[in-house]
Structures are given as structure tokens and as C-alpha cells.
Amino acid sequence: MRTACDRAGRDASSVTLLAVSKTHPVEAIQEAVTSGQCFFGESKVQEAKAKIPSCPAKARWHFIGHLQSNKVRDTVELFEMIQSVDSLALAGEISKRCGQAAKTMPILLEVNVAGEGSKFGYKPEQLLAELKEINALPKIEIHGLMAIPPYVTEPEKARPYFRRLRELKSKCEDILGAPLPQLSMGMSGDFEVAIEEGSTMVRVGTALFGARPKLKPQDPGY
């Protein structure tokens, strides 16, 4: 991460490492916290609900998976940021549940930058059309954008998608008349290119924890 920041002429402190801990045990998270890691990402509410109470109190949690409306209440209670908001209806439900919990939730708006049918996320034009309505919701704060680009074997091939998300963020800032500080993009195989293109948060799992263990039927979130 520091090397990529140096190449881009950026301060290394401008990029946050989000350790993607989904399917990994509490012990691995405890070891990571001991080593100085603070931010963790989970994508299954049921799994997170079982794990988070047993993890160190200093761990900070972001939700990064597809969120169904019937899971919003638990998600609002467990996480300090939701990175995968992909519709006005979902944003509205989050705002409602936050009102009931007397809290405000920072969110990132997930964008389907390549228009893949197999992935969730806003179409860019739809996001721009609904942005002001989302921003008007009382109990959420839009902090930026998130994307999962198509899988590529060569990291450089992901660059156009990262650049597209950065350019979309600029358009959103123009509409809102305010800066959006976060760009969550880049994973284990391509995070250096993402940093070069302006990422402020990289979501890294395999490079930190190794191959993801397969869940068993008795495991939370199976």
C-alpha cells in the first residue's frame, strides 16, 4: 500500500486497510487486532451477529455484502458503516431503522461499474438521478462510493473501472455541492492499481488471512 501511494504521490495515511474477515474465525481477527489492524469487513449479517460480540472491542466493523431489507435492523446495530447501499428503498430503510436506534449511519453507494448482470449495485445514471433523494434522508450520511469491478487476472485491466468510479464520484460531488471523502475500491489482487486511481479504502481478505475456509452447515452464515 505504501509503495502504491509513493507511486501516486499520495500520503500512505490517506488509504485505509479494511480486512475482509468473512468466514474467518474470531481467532484470526484477534490476531489481526493484536498486530494493529482496526477495520474489518463482513458480508453476512448472520455470521457477523455471531462473531462480533466475541471479537476485541477495538475492532471497527463495516458491512460490505448485499443487504436485504429484512436484515437492516441488525446491520444498523452491528456496524459503523454500510458500504453496499444500492437503492433508494434500501437507503430509506436504513434511515428509518437508524431513527429507531437513535443513530446516524455513514454509507457508501455501491456502483455496478461494468454493468454486470451477476452483480448488485447502482447503474451510474440511476445513482445520479436518485442522489439528492438519498442525501435528503435524515439518518444517513453519504461518505462516498464503492465498487467491485469484474474479475481480471491482470490488475492493470481493472484500472478503467477504478477510474470510472473516481470520475463518477466527482459528478456526485458536483450534484451535492460537497466533497465525498471515500472511494472503497481494490481487493487483494488489484489494490495497488486502485490506490493509484484514488482509492481511499482497500478491501483485502485473502492477502491477509489466506484462502477463505469453506463454511460448514453448522457455521453462522452458511
What profile does the largest beta sheet have? 8 strands, parallel
User: What strand order characterises the main sheet?
Assistant: 7-6-5-4-3-2-1-8
Distance between the termini: 32 Å
Q: How many distinct folded domains?
A: 1
Q: Give the tally of β-strands.
A: 8
Tell me the fraction of residues in β-strands, as a range: 15-25%
* Strand and helix order: HEHEHEHEHEHEHEHEH
CATH C-level: Alpha Beta
**What does the overall shape look like?**
globular
Q: How confident is the prediction overall: mean pLDDT?
A: 95
Q: What is the CATH homology-level superfamily? A: Alanine racemase
Look at the helices and sheets and give the structural class: alpha/beta
What is the secondary structure topology, with strand pairs?
Layout: H1 2-8, E1 16-20, H2 26-34, E2 39-42, H3 45-51, E3 60-63, H4 72-78, E4 81-85, H5 88-101, E5 105-111, H6 124-135, E6 140-147, H7 159-176, E7 182-184, H8 191-196, E8 201-204, H9 206-209
Parallel strand pairs: 1-2, 1-8, 2-3, 3-4, 4-5, 5-6, 6-7
List keywords for this structure.
222 residues; alpha/beta; TIM Barrel; eight-stranded parallel beta sheet; 8 strands; 38% helix
